[in-house]
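Researcher: Checking consistency across runs. Here is Cation/H+ exchanger domain-containing protein again:
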Amino acid sequence: MASSVLSYEACTRPSDPFSDGVFYNEQPLAHALPLFLLQIVIMVFTSYAIYFFLRRFNQPRVVSDIISGALLGPTLPYVVTRYLGAVFRAEGLSLMRTAAGLGIQMHFFFVCVKMKPGHLKRCGKKAFAIAISSVVVPYLLLNELKRVFKVREDSMIEGIGYYTCLDYINMIVSISSFPVVGSILAELRLLNTELGRLTMSASLIADLGSSFYVVVYTIVTASRSMSLSVLEAASKMIGYVILLAFLFFVFQPWIRWIVRRTPKGGRVWEGHVVMVILAVIAMGAFSDSYLSSHWEASVYLGLLVPDGPPLGTALIERGEFIPAELLIPLTYLTAGRWIDLTTFTHPKMSAALLLYMFAGYAVKTLAAMVPAIYFNMPIRNAALLGLMLNFTGLVQIANYMGLADAYTDNSIMEPQAYAALIVSGVCITAISSSLVAIFYDPLSSDHVMGCRTVQHLMPQAELRLVAPVLNEEPIPHILNLLEASSADEQTPICVYVLHLVELMGRATSTIIAHKNRKGQLDAHQMDRLHNVFINYEQTKKGIVAVQPFTAVSPYKSMQHDICSLSVEKNVHFVVVPYPRKELGANAELYQATRSIISNVLTQAPCSVGILVHHALAGFGQIVPGQFQYHVKILFWGGADDREALSCGARMALHAGVSVDVTRVLPPTERNRDKDLIWDEELLREFQINNADNERVAIEEVVVSNVEETIGLIKSIDKAYDLVLVGRRQGPSSWLGEVMDEWIESPELGMVGDMLASSEFTDSSFSVLVVQQYV
């Protein structure tokens, strides 16, 4: 008995996955673990190397992944293939395919965690019409075009495979995958643009509706072709019933319980995160046994997890990196190794299949354009929307791999047809992403109407400004600016308060308006930050109107929210707070804010003010009748200084504001160019309007060199509350000579950078650096 057991173990014992090392005369690559680790390193390194080159051409990561997978396949020259064959040999791919399968399952779960099906309620008729048209029209057309292959439905097509695979190809081409579209738009930094949000809504509707259709079609087709018996088809339907019961009666109540147990602003317990991930893995085994694919249940589980904090953010932060960055590339490597251009025996049929695919992509673009144009979208944006819906990625690749599984007997597609599908997907994604990046300008000046500066604003007109804030720290200073700029009913202000929230644990960025057209507030979604401005609005009694918004988006594209809101509301001024490291701003927030400011300066459709502020304890409360504010304006000349003086002129109308203007002159008279003429006209107008205003003082100071200019800046009295200065000074400032040597923050300009430096850390005044829109 013992001997039989030993012999059985000797026959069935697998090889040791670990190597003893080259010093023990072993070949490490003959063992599973070192071979698998080397495969990961080679694939990820190759993918990043290609992406580093292609990203300058606006190519998304998926294009680099597919190309790197193909390059590491059998299509390379013989010399290279011989050496790679030792690493990617057939008997060593089993573990890689297993890890890739786990990566797909977890990746789809995390992607769907970021999704919010509730966005469907806000999609509107436009998104529904675009989604339905972009799916139904290309599917029907391709269904008719497949007749050109002139074969019977139960026969094989040389160079393609079974006739049935054309039906699956039609569905895959027609469907727009929400996760794929979202990830590529995020890479192109268009996720939180108007067109990006509409595309995401349309792809979400198309994806959810098409998924159900694909499941039903797969079961019905398999049953009709006798590949599934009636009993097996019924068992699959029972599997879906069990899955739905688990989702809505077990998983969803459990998830809600976890969210309720987590304190507001607190972290989810590690045990809960682990248990959720284990549930996803377990349902992957169930999905592989009873559903159409091993990752299908993961999609539904992810959709039920609430996006954002606390649980969605915790799952993304703690679990997404490994599948997304290390395991998913293995999927593309597996997909690429099935591409072997040397085995093409029917090139004409492959060319016909490529034309067939591109016909589907073209019709899909046109089908999306028609309803978009009907809803008054510009033709160019409608065409770009259609191209976005054609983005191809992991979802399509996984479906193609299922049709052409080279390691099972279930393949219904020949290898060269599979290669043609992959090539078409890479080409359409590369072309579409390039065209979108080149031709889509979310901040086109065509949408901007009226004046966009304070200087050119009519005296009795309402001043509209956007105040984007990341936290509560700069709010007291913004309120002081609002109060100083709103003297009475003759100087009304409308401020659009935009609370910027980092996109975490979500796939879609959004802008939430907390006040409807009738002026009614949605207090449920508002926070303390908004309430402070609403309370201030009530004290001003019609002089100041507040419109609260919340923008949820990545740091790297928050400028789109700021600028798009400025375009939509036709504002004149954007006030962006500047972070101060000495006030406790962390490194990530400091760099993110500086990047946002730089982008706003170059993209804003109006004038911009950068508010460099000092620390204040608490919000306090502004009493309009007791408000006292001292403003200093440094005026060298030029467009930005004129805009700063115009802001000061509006403040001078307030009974509690005193304004001191220092005009800096060169030792010799300047040539009378246009800038000088405009400077003198604005100063003369300012003097005339404030001739009887005892709270306004104007002085002229002559400086002859850089040292005197810097001394003038350093001599500013600390009794001031605000210093107004242009970002770029005129030619008489003498500062351009030392700009490169002194400046640390180019977004503030030379004077602003000096006033924000450590020498003024103890000063009590804030600085408003102004850039005029030209």
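Researcher: Does this match what you'd expect to see?
Model: One thing to look at in this run: The two ends are 93 Å apart (CA to CA).
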